[in-house]
Specification:
Elements: H1 2-53, H2 60-67, H3 69-80, H4 82-98, H5 100-127, H6 129-136, H7 140-143, H8 148-159, H9 162-178, H10 183-187, H11 190-202, H12 216-239, H13 253-268, H14 271-283, H15 290-325, H16 329-356, H17 358-366, H18 373-386, H19 390-405, H20 410-434, H21 436-462, H22 467-498, H23 504-529, H24 532-547
Length: 548
């Protein structure tokens, strides 16, 4: 009986695991569709800004990117970090244990608390904008350009009201995700990019007549984008039964629990953004344009993270919270393992593809208007050194919230502090040897360290992470991705010789043909190697096409 019973139990465990992969794939698929729209609009935003303002052609984009550092830091911490990690488990627990009325009350308390806190931050930020700007932009190369620091301070003050809008938008996102409503919340950040593109064409020409620099229109678009994120989600949340109430109670037990988790969670999930701020400060010591090159490269590298890493983590978080509340470690292991395997299948090929096609992609997307071939070379170099960190960033978005679901906020904090220290040490060393390229490499290395340390500690906490299955999947994915990368690189080189023209259409043909060749090889290798995560994704796509 024992010999017979064990295989049956194993079959049931495998069936549960496969069902978990399928359910996670469906939820992540919906999020990916919405996130893809947002991230593609983000790339379109970079294209528009590059064409209008360039990168090294003047101080506007460097000033904007430094000024946006403070509100962007808080946005990323709220949108994809501490707020989500602390609020979603508490809201989900309240919803399941006490019903929707109690959950809506908690949602109102959190929204109002965030408005008070971020409102105070805005006031302080406006008052101390000048010293904050000088602290971030400490490099002599930045400060020596006449008017550059003053422009950066002015843009910082314009953008700071973005903080309360994004705080409310993310609280709404957390409530909708807890209700398993993923599509609209994932789509809402697209409003930021939509507003930027609209203002670039409508407000930029009007700024000089108002006595403002043209780049001020883009700063205004930032605030309008935050308002747009609220406007998109509000009708959906209202249909679910939420009604806003101006109630405030910092001493409510659930609010205090969220704030307690958010304190260390902010630090625990802040590694990426703190590293970016450090990079920005060090980049101000580099030639004009380096800040914008790093920013554009980071956004392009972040496209796969937004499409795959964030979507998988967002889909998994409610399940992780539920399993943790039920102290079901086996279910947590299955969910985390499924998420990691899916993440590897999507992000390892993306990493190799970005390295192989860095220059052709940037040449096609950004080299227009005032964005020169010199800017293309700088941005491509930064992208190649950022790309190895892609897997690390995505893994952190799965591993770190898993600790918070378990009520452990200390471990991610310690690991994050160590990774920030490692990043700072690497950047200070590498910037002297490699210039701005060293900043990208140091950040990527710190991200991989952060992810690796968290996963090792999570494995100890849960008694395993299905390592054998993860190892087999990673080995197969690396082989398939290496074949894809080689074919992609060779195809791009051959096309550059065969089609030497420099028009946008020809650049596009070269890039998409190389990508297509790589995807064909990846699909063939995945089939031959029987990579189940790839087969699962293809099956879902074919099922949708069949239904249509």
């Amino acid at each position: 009986m024992t010999a017979i019973g064990r295989p049956a139990a194993n079959d049931r465990a495998v069936a549960k695991s496969e069902d978990g992969v399928g359910r996670l794939a469906r939820s992540a698929g919906l999020i990916s569709i919405a996130t893809m729209a947002s991230r593609l609009l983000g790339v379109a935003r970079e294209v528009v800004l590059a064409a209008i303002f360039g990168a090294s052609a003047g101080p506007a984009m460097d000033a904007f990117n430094v000024a946006f550092r403070v509100p962007n830091l808080v946005r990323d911490l709220f949108a994809e970090g501490a707020m989500t990690a602390a609020f979603v488990p508490t809201f989900t627990r309240t919803l399941n244990a006490r019903g929707r009325d109690a959950a809506w009350r908690l949602g109102n308390l959190v929204i109002n608390a965030l408005l008070v806190v971020t409102g105070l931050l805005v006031v302080l930020g406006i008052i101390f904008a000048d010293p904050i700007t000088r602290a971030i932009a400490s490099g002599e190369a930045f400060a020596e350009r006449p008017g550059k620091l003053a422009l950066t301070t002015e843009l910082t003050r314009i953008m700071l009201p973005f903080l309360p809008t994004v705080a409310v938008a993310v609280a709404m996102m957390g409530m909708l995700n807890s209700l398993h409503r993923f599509f609209v919340p994932a789509l809402s950040p697209a409003m930021f990019n939509v507003m930027t593109i609209l203002c670039a064409f409508t407000l930029v020409p009007l700024m000089p007549s108002l006595g403002l620099p043209p780049i001020a229109a883009i700063a205004m678009a930032t605030v309008l984008g935050g308002i747009g994120q609220i406007a998109v989600q509000w009708p959906v949340l209202r249909r679910e039964g939420f009604r806003y109430r101006p109630t405030l109670n910092f001493f409510d037990p659930d609010v205090r629990e969220i704030l307690r988790l958010m304190g260390p969670a902010t630090l625990g999930l802040a590694a990426v953004q703190i590293n970016v701020v450090v990079n920005t400060s060090l980049a101000t010591t580099q030639p004009e344009g380096a800040i914008s090159w790093l920013q554009a490269a980071f956004r392009l590298m972040y496209l796969p993270i937004g499409l795959f890493g964030v979507s998988i983590a967002t889909a998994a978080l409610p399940d992780l919270s539920k399993h943790a509340a039920a102290t079901d470690k086996e279910a947590m292991r299955r969910t985390i393992s499924s998420g990691l395997r899916m993440m590897l299948m999507l992000n390892v090929p993306a990493t190799i593809g970005l390295i192989a096609l860095a220059r052709p992609i940037i040449e096609f997307l950004l080299e227009h208007g005032r964005f020169s071939s010199h800017d293309t070379a700088g941005t491509a170099a930064a992208l190649m050194f950022y790309a190895p960190g892609l897997v690390g960033y995505s893994a952190v978005k799965i591993a770190s919230p898993s600790f918070y679901s378990l009520g452990d906020s200390r471990t991610p904090v310690i690991v994050s502090v160590l990774s920030v220290g490692l990043n700072l040490a690497l950047n200070l060393m590498l910037v002297r040897v490699m210039g701005f390229r060293g900043l990208a490499l140091g950040t990527a290395t710190a991200a991989l360290f952060n992810a690796g340390a968290l996963l090792v500690l999570l494995r100890r906490r849960l008694g395993g992470l299905d390592e054998r299955r993860l190892g087999i999947a990673l080995s197969k994915i690396l082989i398939a991705s290496a074949l894809m990368g080689g074919v992609t690189y060779l195809t791009a080189g051959w096309l550059e010789t065969a089609l030497p023209a420099h028009g946008t259409i020809v650049k596009g043909i070269r890039v998409f043909t190389a990508i297509g060749a790589g995807l064909i090889v990846l699909a063939g290798a995945a089939r031959l190697l029987d990579i189940s995560e790839f087969n699962e994704a293809v099956k879902k796509v074919l099922q949708r096409i069949g239904r249509r």
